[in-house]
Write a structure and sequence with these properties.
- Helix 9 runs antiparallel to helix 10 and helix 18 packs parallel to helix 19.
- By secondary structure, the chain is an alpha/beta fold.
- The chain is built from 22 helices and 24 strands.
- Strands 1-2-3-5-4 form a five-stranded antiparallel sheet. The chain has a five-stranded mixed sheet with strand order 7-9-10-12-11, with helices on one face.
Length: 715
Amino acid sequence: MATSIDTVMLRNERDVVVARQRARDIAALLGYDNRQQIRLATAASEMARNAFRYARNGKVSFGVALDAQRFEIVISDSGPGIANLNEILEGRYHSETGLGLGIIGTKRLMDTFTIETGGSGTRITMGQALAPAITPLLPQHLQDTIRDLKTRLPEGPYEEIQRQNQELLKILEELRARQEELALLNRELEDTNRGVVALYAELDERADYLRRASDLKSSFLSNISHEFRTPLNSIVSLARILLDRMDGQLTQEQEKQVRFIADAAKSLSEMVNDLLDLAKVEAGKVKIRVKTFEVSELFSALKGMLKPLLADNTSVDLVFDEVSPIPPLHTDEGKVSQILRNFISNAIKFTAKGEVKISAEPGVNQSILFKVMDTGIGIAAEHQDAIFQEFTQIDNPFQDNYRGTGLGLPLCRNLALLLGGKVWVESELGQGSAFYAEIPVVYRGEAEASQAEEPLPVPDFHRLPVLLVEDNPEIFSVLEPYFRRSEFQLIHVQSIDRAQQWLARHTAEAIVSDIYLDGSPSWDFLASLKKQYRNAEKKVPLIAISIYEHESRALSAGADVFLKKPLPEDLLMRELRRLTGRQKPRRVLLVDDNDLELYILRELLDRPWLDLIEARSGPQALETISSEHPDAVILDLTMPGMSGFEVLERLRANEQTRDLPVIVYTSRILSGEERQRLDRLGAQMLFKGDIATTLAPEVILNSLERIGVSEPQRS
């Protein structure tokens, strides 16, 4: 609880000035510097002025919380309270008498700031940590402060204004000095920037040189590898011909020599293949062939593939652990298999006896962790990083029997990186090794593509696009079905950036925008739209929507209409038609039992100002006319059950449908009596053959226009 120092009652304007003076005097006695004194005095006077202007029985109390070592100012009143406090604290309130920033600004000046408000009044408690020079403040020191304060008489308003002017001049002088320092710093930064730019230019040049060198190296390796392959394959083939005695017998010594040639060619061929793979990876020319596969299937294939390696080393068992429940992989199976084959073949080579165990388990971040563990010679800690570098081989007793290329493990590392994963080894000399490969379940190249921003929606050719800028997809889900059969197409984007991208490519008939997108107001966006279309040839109506009452500000920002959410679908449709000068679509009933004929009519009459409904029989047509009240009917004559003639006669016999416009759309040849019958029933004639030969929509549209159904003119 704070110990009271002084209280100022707010009865008139002069008391607000006294509150400011008292705040500054107490701050000075408590050891705050001049700038902090001004901050505290400003905060106290701002809140005191609010209490005096908007409430009654206001007072300002000054005290010190000794336990917290904090200077506290409490402003209280018995007014009606602050009804829109949340809007004020969130910066959304615009005061009629000011900027509405007093409370927010004061809150920023203080260390602590709380407001309690209601029908019985408002209480604002502000706190500032005591100046370090006098902390901790003891009760005796506080009593001395209170005594000193009583000896200070309040100054008049003119003296206070003079003091404020002096304070303002000091602040302006400090700002001028800061500005000069800033100008000096800017000049120094410009000099530094020029040096940095020059350095970057040199680095870019070096990077370009290294890039060209890397490209040349990759190109050289790729070309030379291809060139080596042909003669090496020839050597291996010729050696096989000689060893198979296809051209005669070999002596024992000759066979030994040919086997040396074959083994050397085979080793060299493996090195060429590894070099070619490395060059492809580094050049970015490796194609990732993504497929979905199970780890159990991969292990089964590896078993059969690696069995021949055990023929030369029968003291080693190759063990594949049972695969635990893990998801299937969606990545390049061949690349994963190549990594594991290298790991396993190395493990078999450098394991004299024991086992090589292969396992897989779920890893972190949606990945699978493969492990190849052996009981071989192991790798010393100082060599564990080197084995993943090109052409690096570690001397060991097995090296004489198995001369490797030093490219297998570097290739594994690059392939794993290519798939978005990584490889590493854990080993102890003489105790065996464990090689790990962590591979993402889904190849990240595809995952990133699937997560990439969806393409912008494209407007339909025959509908009027209305852009809805709304971060809540549920609003679009509610509105879209209502728009689906209208002359408007609702185009939905969820951000201002997406809206601006869409508007740069397409023209909207109207724009409907939520005022708050991702929690931030879109006033600048609304204002920019108003400015953009101010001198445009075609005015684009703008409708602002929000759950908050912002009608006046929305209209001043550029909106033509403000609608409060939740939106009744018919209200938004009515406003769009009013603002765009569009009338309600004319509803036309298509009656035909032939699906193909209905399809052709729908395609030919696909217009935003036409709302097409269908019926496939006479009874269904009469029921639809009774419930949907179409503006016109296009009627086939020949239908099973009830013919078009019967439908037409029932329509004319009904008072409500006697004058309903009807176009008879038929393929049958009518007799003179049938033509006279149709004339008596007041129906226009249109032959399907005329439409089928031209597929010209104008023929039907002209017929509709003759019976009074035409495209409404925009007002």
